[in-house]
Specification:
Length: 388
């Protein structure tokens, strides 16, 4: 356990001499807008250890290490940990290797859990008993610390194995291309547009009310940040949708919205009404884009064919299907298929390594040059054949 400034500086001095180290964190995100950081786990050549950020005031030596090109930082499911550390330490990461992302290029599920990789790569069955531990309490129990150490204990072995497998399959360049976004700060600042699209879809907000919903979404986000409370502490998604649909102009009208308490109206009522009035008088012109598809006949059939194609290409390439083609992209291609190859491969989701991996097959499929054949005698089942 590293719990003094002196020991932290000694550790970071030693880690600078390493080529790679493993990293993980323990944090709580359900009580605050900005998650509380309670533990940092590190594993270098000398083995795993934990850093107590509650006892060390200055974590900047560690921050400088995160920002440096060397050593490589190995993290499993890196985005959450990077997001927390970026905010807590005000750093920008460099040279990150995500074992979960690498696993997807090697045939595992896109969101494969660490314990599954530890089993597959190390032949070890780690304990999972402290998944719901309260990491804010001190002192930590010995078994809690051991559980936390297990999150980095095997990562370097997994990293070395994955690097060799990626090289052997010619996938290392593909992985690196996909991993660029992990160290791009803009990757971690896109939650609000996504929330807007989600609430708009689930609440079935009409197009002529989108400017009100966008104003309310931004108000809730700013309020949650300011008081450092979770979004749902302010108001839940479905209530925002209901407020948008009714667009109340008075507290009396606001009180008729299902799910709103009198306490909410006392605390936030005036602000809500001001936001709605301003949105009605001066609608924001920079509302996030809502995809609109022009339905064509055969959408359901195209989606079925694309799913079969994705499954077969995923098996052929040994790459997670969710990584190869997202569900949103399949829906988009089925509802509004591109007219030509140039249009298809101009889509951001189909540039780079995906274009190389899929080659001409996806173009041929969408142009009707591939057909499905049922192999009645063999065990291959359905497979695609080219047709004139």
């Amino acid at each position: 356990m590293i719990s003094t400034q002196e020991d932290l500086e000694k550790l970071t001095d030693k880690l600078r001499e390493e080529k790679v180290f493993a990293l993980d964190t323990e944090f709580h995100g359900e009580r605050r807008y900005w998650p509380d950081l309670f533990l940092i786990q590190i594993a270098g050549s000398d083995g795993p250890l934990v850093i107590d950020p509650l006892k060390i005031n200055d974590l900047s030596p560690l921050g400088r290490l995160f920002e440096s090109e060397s050593p490589v930082k190995v993290i499993h499911s890196a985005r959450n940990d990077i997001d927390v550390l970026m905010h807590h330490m005000n750093v920008k990461f460099s040279s990150v290797f995500d074992t979960q992302l690498a696993a997807a290029f090697l045939g595992h599920e896109r969101q494969t859990a660490l314990f599954k990789l530890v089993k597959a790569e190390c032949g070890i069955y780690p304990k999972k008993g402290h998944t719901l531990s309260d990491w804010s309490l001190r002192p930590l129990a010995n078994d809690q610390i051991e559980y936390a150490l297990d999150d980095v204990r095997y990562l370097l072995e997994i990293y070395r194995s994955q690097i060799e497998q990626l090289k052997a399959r010619g996938r290392l360049g593909w992985y690196r291309e996909e991993a660029v976004s992990l160290t791009d700060p803009s990757t971690y600042n896109n939650a609000v547009p996504k929330l807007f699209r989600k609430v708009r879809s689930t609440a079935k907000v009409r197009n002529n009310r989108l400017h009100v919903l966008w104003a309310l979404i931004k108000w809730r986000e700013n309020t949650a940040r300011r008081i450092n409370k979770p979004r749902n502490f302010i108001v839940r998604d479905h209530v925002l949708g209901a407020i948008t649909a009714l667009t109340p102009v008075s507290k009396r009208a606001l009180s008729r919205v299902r799910g709103i308490s009198s306490g909410f109206i006392i605390k936030w009522g005036n602000e809500i009404l001001e936001v709605i009035a301003e949105a009605e008088n001066s609608p924001d012109k920079d509302i996030p884009c809502i995809p609109r598809y022009h339905s064509r006949p055969g959408i359901s059939a195209r989606m079925d064919i694309l799913r079969i194609f994705l499954k077969q290409e995923s098996c052929r390439l040994g790459i997670s299907p969710e990584l190869l083609l997202s569900k949103d992209l399949i829906n988009s291609l089925a509802k509004n298929p591109p007219d030509n190859e140039k249009e298809l491969y101009s889509l951001p989701e189909l540039t780079g390594w995906r274009k190389e991996a899929l080659g001409d097959d996806l173009v041929s499929l969408l142009k009707g040059k591939l057909a499905l054949k049922l192999n009645l005698k063999g065990s291959a089942g359905l497979h695609f054949i080219r047709i004139e």
